[in-house]
Amino acid sequence: MRELTPRQIVEELAKYIVGQDKAKRAVAIAIRNRWRRQQLPPELREEVAPKNIIMIGPTGVGKTEIARRLANLVKAPFLKVEASRYTEVGYHGRDVESMIRDLVELAVETVRGEQLEGVQVEAQKHAEEHLLDILLPVPAEGDPPRESTRERLRAKLRAGDLDARSIELEVKEQPAAIPVFSSMGMDQVDMNLQNMLERIMPTRRRPRRVTVPEALRILVQEEAEKLIDREQVIEEALQRAQNSGIVFLDELDKIAGRETQVGGPDVSREGVQRDLLPIVEGSTVATRYGMVRTDHILFIAAGAFHVAKPADLIPEMQGRFPIRVELDDLGKDEFVRILTEPQNALTKQYAALMETEGVRLTFAPDAIEEIASMSFHINQRTQSIGARRLHTVMERLLEDISFDAPEMGGAKVPIDAKYVRDKLKDIVADEDLARFIL
Length: 438
Description:
The chain is of the alpha/beta class. It has three domains: about 5-110 and about 235-325, P-loop containing nucleotide triphosphate hydrolases (Rossmann fold); about 130-225, no CATH class; about 330-435, Helicase, Ruva Protein, domain 3, CATH 1.10.8. The chain contains 19 helices and eleven strands. It has helices at about 5-15, 20-40, 40-45, 65-75, 100-120, 120-135, 145-160, 185-200, 210-225, 230-245, 270-280, 315-320, 330-340, 345-355, 365-380, 390-395, 400-405, 415-430, 430-435, and strands at about 55, 80, 165-170, 205-210, 245-250, 285, 290-295, 300-305, 325, 360-365, 410-415. A hairpin with a 2-residue loop joins β6 and β7. α6 crosses α9 (about 210-225) and α15 (about 365-380) packs across α16 (about 390-395). The longest helix has 21 residues, at about 100-120. The radius of gyration is 28 Å and the shape is flat. The two termini are about 40 Å apart.
């Protein structure tokens, strides 16, 4: 985990997310508290639990983006799930413990990727030697010493002189896909079955005709796998998942409130909350890599809470999320900033995309004002989807340019307010059409 101060975390998040300072401060403090916990004596460290957060706000205001950027920033295992995909035990749906197993899988893949990257140089050397063994014929009597021939062949390999040549290589055969059970409670069965099959099924290899560069790539992967310690990968991944994992639990408002009728569509809402309680509070979950404790995983929940309110959650669930942050709705001024300020601003993205076709796209300030104003008014007149409205408006605005770009031959296309109005006037004027298209 990177040792960032709360102020540094907020500054980094501000590079991609406009506004929402209260939410940024809340998550920054939560992450810094994790670092503080690691500095405590072991006996006290175990007693300090993370303060889980509920983000309250309409769709498209940055709830998910804040959590995702935060996880990337501190290199923490991150999993986004929807609370509505889980159902009470006994009903059709997914077991709540599966989110922890998914988080551990992500952590294992992340650590494995880091270790593979760390051994690439050594793996490249081993793969090159292996490939030379395949390419180099057995020397006959009277031939030059094998070593000098090997070095000449190595030079040709590095220079690319052998790229057009193909060789036969023994490659690992991909294991057959294991059927996935979709019934409730079968996640654990899938996990045990997969572990068993991996142990009893031998690794099979088959001959395959490949080019020399492809053979080198395959051999580098195989050599890198040999160089990493699988047990160390699993141990590190479990530590990360338990101590720095972040689970983003979206649509929490969909499981808030008590059932009004038995057998109705929302029959398991309160049941899901009760099933989530031990996971959020702290329990031990069985995964294919070992037992994982959830005591110090940070849970960030989010929801619009238009109909239900956080107070509609059962009291035990409310107690597991002591920090509540309300995110601000986005207006025209925020849309202008979103279009221009972040490092990944939409105007920068579209300009870069068109640049690949040789088309130079420029946005005048009045065009950005017009796009922001139209997006805001469409949100007000139709269903508000927050900043996501900018994506739909921009796609509609630049549809013709995106289609014609390959034939435009390096043209310069200035986008001004008049261009925006001309392209979107019909849709903005016709409310029914706006509802259908935007």
